[in-house]
Amino acid sequence: MRSVTGRSMVCQENAPTSLVRLLDSHFYERFCVCILYVYPEKVKASCPSNNSHRRSQRRRHRNRVSSISFIHANNAQEVKMKLSIAIAALTQTVTQTQSGTTSICIESWRIQDYDVWNTTLLPAFEAKHPNIAVTFKPNPDGSAAYYEELPQQLANGTACDLITARPFDTSLDLFNKGYLADITNSTTVLDNFSNVAKTAWQTDDGSTTYAVPMASVITGFIYNKDAFDSLAIETPETQEEFYAALDKLKADGTYIPLAMGGTGGFAHAYNAEKGFMGIGPNYWKGEEGRIALLNGEEKLTDEAWVEPWRQLLQWVSYTGENRMSQTQEESMELFMSGKAAIYPVGSWELHDLEEGVNGTFSMGVFKPPVPAEGDQCYIQDHIDMAMAMNAASKHKEAALMFLDWVGSEEFSTLYANALPGFFPLANFKVSFDDKLSNDMISWRDECNSSIRPFSQILDRHDPTTTAQSFTACGEVINGVKSPEEVAAEMQAVLESWYEPQMQMMATTTTKPNSSPTTATGSPTSPAFAAVALKGFATTSAVAMLAALLDLE
Predict the structure, then answer these.
(1) What is the value of pTM for the model shown?
(2) Which residue of 285, 299, 332, 440 sits 20 to 30 Å from the alpha carbon of 124, by its own alpha carbon?
(3) Residue 7 burial (CB count, 10 A)
(4) Phi, psi dihedrals of residue 341, rounded to the nearest 5°
């Protein structure tokens, strides 16, 4: 028995029978796949070693075997999922050797989508392209590990042919380092997407596109319809109606009115994304306010940007006795168990929520309530995910064929229905089997859409403005700082590095909440945007901004 990274490798024939055997050993000609066993405290891997030939082959292919020998996991189900991914990755190489097909793989952070890709999406593609075998290879440790490890994999040449790409600077940095391929003129499917949809995976000047957009996510509220019906509560449309519903639920006492965690970075991040950024567009007027912040016309200390923090603080009194001691996971479980009536929701959570509730009560969704009756509604409809090609891929032709398919109507339809809550970005009319998804995407018909306020350009600082908002959220809801204090602190950081905000700070003659004007044009004109953005703006960038504001 030999020690590896603090754990033990044992031969299969020596493995205790009390271990939980998850999968049999697999031999594909001369390739060996290790088996995982689960102890209550640790995981062991075994690989048959009963003859010298197999031992020599393991030495020859030790990189393939060692890459899956030891997997951190919390339970048997998690180990089985991770082992399946590892075996699929190894099988890819074997399949290519045996059948002559071209094998490519996809990097992703969404391990929870593994079954959907393998049972629905990839079979549909491979049916049309039988000579291309595709493996979905998500990072087994989730998004944080993905962001940390992907640049290393791209740098050392071990990354997959296709890369699931996050929006804006996360992927732009990879492109600027030469890791992602320029696909501007390599595929015609980019014509299936609006300029706004492509913005998150383009260079600042808009001249180069390096990913095919896949999906956006929408934020709002999900609620227990049975709870609402029992108290004759109507779905709230305005801020006043929203608090009336919460008050009625609180007075009745059967349900905790609002499930919202306040402990841990995950809870702070989700509350910022689904709370502050979810309701915020109704106050800063969506893209109008976001672009004004970019241009230096508005500040984070303006009322339109401070009020969402005040609203978030007001929610705390409706979160039950434990209030902010709950984690994000506990608040989600509180809703799924039927104990809480309302949960601030990101559409990416719909699938998990529907599985968790499993029909024990009826659910509905409602959009962020507007401040007053008659106000135009705005929603956070964030361009979230795309597919890029590894610039160092040895199978670019096959990878491009897959990208063409990602931009097709077939993919949009399959993806939208297989993964409720991820809404296609292509210009196809897609119908959803999932009612909650249909209800959420219908908000686009009556509300103006906006992306998260800091994702474009304003996160080019350490710490990012988004990360600062996560911290601010935790401070506000836990009573550490006031909404006005966190807004002032975030604004001070923005003014310390972002030139348009520096210019605004120097402009002392303009009235509060009014936009400065220049000889180059009105505050919302493309010409003014070019001046305000200075080093960031070019002709194409201005055209993009104009498109966001529907000025063209």
Answers:
(1) 0.73
(2) 440
(3) 14
(4) -95, -30
